[in-house]
Please model this.
Amino acid sequence: MIVADPRNPEARAAALYGAWLCGTVLGTVGMSLHHKLCHALGGCFDLPHAETHAIMLPHTAAFNAAAAAAALAPAHALFGRDLGGGLYDFSAAIGAPRALRDLGLRETDLDRAADIAVQNPYWNPRPVERDGIRALLQRAWEGARPE
Model:
């Protein structure tokens, strides 16, 4: 694994191929809550792109897990039945950031971020409602395990 041996050329090649596959997927699917939140956080609050995605993914996966169970089933093989929690644990294991506050987002910005996220929402398997989004953002800000 690249985290354990960052100079390993085979691990680096596999990571690069995985990144390419992820980019290819973005051209063939609809964007949903995850991208909407990350665009709002990055564009309106100047948060760094990759780190914001790393923090938000466990939370948005947990938010959508029940509504997109069939589509997310393959991910359970890697991260377990608790997809959000599994992604959160994986982030911790590789040293990825887990709290929006660590990127400089202020807690007072969470209401505005939630308001932005529910305006013109992207398609999402679960309804995008302000209270649910605000709670998701609070947990991501705190670095708490997704629910």
Summary: The radius of gyration is 15 Å. The CA atoms of residues 27 and 104 lie 30 Å apart.
